[in-house]
Design the sequence.
């Protein structure tokens, strides 16, 4: 049930009953929320500044520029700054170096570390924009631009939350970290994966992680489904196209594979349901996309004026994108495809195939009673007056590296912005949603780092 949002001052004083958190807590939250609201203009200009740095990936440009911007801002608040270049990761070059930043502010006492991780890269703009994609225009209540929603708005909200928290409560325990990392849109190998491999997300250094991806201000994203990307090749034998019986057509073999998938694989995938609360609901099952299909001669270049030659194709290749559930094992997912190919082989005498894995990601889902989940849920209840929605992302994001490489399970995605706007033309984020998310993040810091 949804209740109307309540003013925090009223909430903690109405009814006369003492709340378990006490007056001290209510006073802290009132000051926190008032200060965040007072910094509304600053939140807007910070978001605009971030959008105006065109960190398009690929190729992965302006990473150093955005890290320097964040350094200049956070160093003023006594954050210790570290720049880490992910040398020799995919795409790293002198022209497009993969720079990352970690900013850490220690509290006055020992304690735990809460880390906000945002990716700095944005995808290409594409067509059909009606505003400048790197203008950061404020129109009505929305800030527009590539990355406004995914995820510079979330990054700005987390920075304002952290700054207000350290300003108001400099005697906090533990540490607050903010990272800006590269290449999330292309797999995160030059960003979070690189940092996780070097211990930056090890449980002894960081205990709580919030990734402010645009999963909506009232939802906590616990994780994501798994991925298996593979290329399937069918093999035949080349011959003259006028005498195809002398060769063996790899494209016809691939046709047989597709038919077998339609008849047996797709129906069985549709029946595999999950307990993961994936959004949208259509993704609450196993899915398979065929990303690409190619057989025979390469497509000619657009300016090529010649004719193709008559050949029987000796190779056809298909790239598949299989998304799997926490209830499934990667080995079974792989075996299922091999079984499809073996069934085809059993009835086509000359059929031959190869499977090559491109990448895999194991599903990740943080427990609902994990400390970071409880803290953010409490924040949503206070700020929005309603219980959070728990969701799981249909696709992956950097949580995979924090979980698998960093061995840190206490990680969620929570941030402002509407997921459906990500990567679209005229992408925007609402200022009010950023304020709300900043309050929730700020309250989480109070919960986790301030002794009561
Ligand atoms: Zn994102």
Sequence:
């Amino acid at each position: 049930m949804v209740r109307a949002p309540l003013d925090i001052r009223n909430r903690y004083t109405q009814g006369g009953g003492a709340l378990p958190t006490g007056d001290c807590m209510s006073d802290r939250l009132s000051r926190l929320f008032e200060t965040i609201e007072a910094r509304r203009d600053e939140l807007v200009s910070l978001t605009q500044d971030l959008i105006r740095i065109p960190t398009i990936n690929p190729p992965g440009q302006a990473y150093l520029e955005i890290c320097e911007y964040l350094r200049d801002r956070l160093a003023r608040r006594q954050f210790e700054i570290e720049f880490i270049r992910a040398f020799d990761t995919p795409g790293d070059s002198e022209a497009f170096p993969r720079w990352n930043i970690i900013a850490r502010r220690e509290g006055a006492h020992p304690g735990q570390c809460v880390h906000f991780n945002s990716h700095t890269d944005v995808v290409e703009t594409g067509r059909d924009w009606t505003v400048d994609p790197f203008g950061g225009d404020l129109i009505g209540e929305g800030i527009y631009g590539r990355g406004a929603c995914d995820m510079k708005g979330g990054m700005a909200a987390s920075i304002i939350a952290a700054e207000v928290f350290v300003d108001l409560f400099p005697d906090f325990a533990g540490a607050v970290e903010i990272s800006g990392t590269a290449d999330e849109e292309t797999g995160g190998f030059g960003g979070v994966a690189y940092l996780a491999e070097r211990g930056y997300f090890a449980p002894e250094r960081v205990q709580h992680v919030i990734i402010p991806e645009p999963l909506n201000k009232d939802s906590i994203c616990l994780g994501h489904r798994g991925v298996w990307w593979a290329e399937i090749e069918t093999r035949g034998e080349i011959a003259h196209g006028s005498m195809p019986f002398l060769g063996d057509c790899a494209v016809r073999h691939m046709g047989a594979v597709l038919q077998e998938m339609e008849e047996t694989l797709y129906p069985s995938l549709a029946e595999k349901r999950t307990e993961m609360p994936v959004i949208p609901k259509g993704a609450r099952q196993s899915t398979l996309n065929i990303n690409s299909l190619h057989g025979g001669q390469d497509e000619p270049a657009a300016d090529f004026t010649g004719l193709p030659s008559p050949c029987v194709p000796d190779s056809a290749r298909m790239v598949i994108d299989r998304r799997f559930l926490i209830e499934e094992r990667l080995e079974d997912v792989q075996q299922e495809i091999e079984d499809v190919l073996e069934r085809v082989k059993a009835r086509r005498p000359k059929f031959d195939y190869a499977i090559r894995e491109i990448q895999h990601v194991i599903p990740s889902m943080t427990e609902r009673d994990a400390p970071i989940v409880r803290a953010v849920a409490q924040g949503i209840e206070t700020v929005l007056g309603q219980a959070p929605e728990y969701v799981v992302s249909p696709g992956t994001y950097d949580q995979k590296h924090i979980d698998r490489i960093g061995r840190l399970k206490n990680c969620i995605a929570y941030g402002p912005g509407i997921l459906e706007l990500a990567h679209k033309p005229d992408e925007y984020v609402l200022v009010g949603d950023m304020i709300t998310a900043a309050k929730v993040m700020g309250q989480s810091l109070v919960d986790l780092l301030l002794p009561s």
